[in-house]
Amino acid sequence: MAGVTNPLCLQTYLAVNNARIRHQQHTDDVSKGYPGKFCSIVKSAGTGKSRLVHELGEHGVVVLYMNFKERGSIESDSYPPCDEVLLDMLVLERRREEGPQVAAFLAAIFLQMVTTLTQMAIRYNGDHSQMIKEWQACMRSSGRSSRRLFFMVVKVSL
Predict the structure, then answer these.
(1) Does residue 73 belong to any structural domain of this protein?
(2) 98 contacts 148 by C-beta, under 8 angstroms
(3) Range of the domain at 42
(4) Residue 70: inside a domain, yes or no?
């Protein structure tokens, strides 16, 4: 995804991948290699990643913020703040463990996302735009305590 700074370009990229996954689910050809409906955005500091993700959320895409910058690093005070629960679970506590533990962690995140988004959808009578607005507010830096609580629930579920 190098060089993508326009949320509509990223949204199109995600939509194309989503179509590929749906096509793959309806065929026997699983060799295409589209294992999941998510995208990582990794680039150097100051390149607009957070802005891109924020704008993507404004276009109705469910976005989960995760920041693994270690405490005390040069960029530790950057935006969004470090998710210390994640850092402790994935980096500090599990340095020697890989594979199944990470898969279990990701599964727990997605299950908690489904639970949380379902509760929000019920609260808004199925109005997905309101649900996504609340989700974004909880996950952005301004909702840091909500994001921390979300990841703490994930940690407890493991």
Answers:
(1) no
(2) no
(3) 1-61
(4) no
